[in-house]
Automatic annotation (TrEMBL):
Keyword annotations from UniProtKB, A to Z: Cell inner membrane, Cell membrane, Membrane, Transmembrane, Transmembrane helix, Transport
Region (Disordered): 144-167
Organism of provenance: Salinicola rhizosphaerae
Stored Pfam families: DctQ (PF04290)
Protein name: TRAP transporter small permease protein
Lineage per the UniProt record: Bacteria, Pseudomonadati, Pseudomonadota, Gammaproteobacteria, Oceanospirillales
Length: 167
């Protein structure tokens, strides 16, 4: 992100003098794709994606496992779609280069393929932990530092913050 900001800022400054880096746009596009995919993998590994634990916690244990397993299998299918589609684009764009930098146009799709594989590995790891009984179903894809909800007998994080403002 820092590199992209520096490149774009330098390019804007240089445009005042009638010049600039011609490859900035291509490099920014490549780096932004990599940044987005890296963020998606890290967010899944840390349990930071949007989830609906309130609904899952209200289900009986057997149904909780089934719902989380079904969700995990859907995630694996989406990961497979990402890998297959990105790899198809790698093969299509393998002979093409960006006009200004000369870099292969398949680079963003290679990052998509790698991200899809990593997302699938994280999903399999989390599902495996749940199926072996090491993680409760409602905590399977949740953040590790996230407090338990009121359904488990603990206070909600917002309630704790509100109490802190009252004192």
């Amino acid at each position: 992100m820092f590199i992209m900001v520096i490149m774009v800022f330098a390019n804007v400054c240089l445009r005042f003098f009638g010049s600039g880096f011609v490859a900035t746009e291509e490099l920014s596009r490549i780096l932004l794709g990599g940044l987005i995919f890296t963020g998606a993998v890290v967010a899944l590994a840390q349990g930071r994606h949007i989830a609906m634990p309130l609904v899952i916690e209200r289900l009986p244990l057997g149904l909780r496992r089934l719902v989380v397993l079904a969700g995990g299998l859907l995630m694996l299918y989406c990961d497979w779609l990402l890998v297959a589609g990105a790899w198809a684009q790698v093969e299509i764009n393998l002979g093409s280069d960006y006009p200004l930098t000369g870099l292969p146009q398949s680079i963003p799709y290679v990052t998509g393929t790698i991200a899809g594989v990593l997302l699938a590995l994280v999903t399999l790891y989390k599902l495996g932990r749940m199926l072996m009984g090491r993680t409760a179903p409602e905590r399977c894809f949740a953040a590790d530092d996230e407090p338990a909800t009121a359904a488990n007998g603990d206070e909600n994080r917002l309630e704790k913050q509100a109490r802190g403002f009252e004192s």
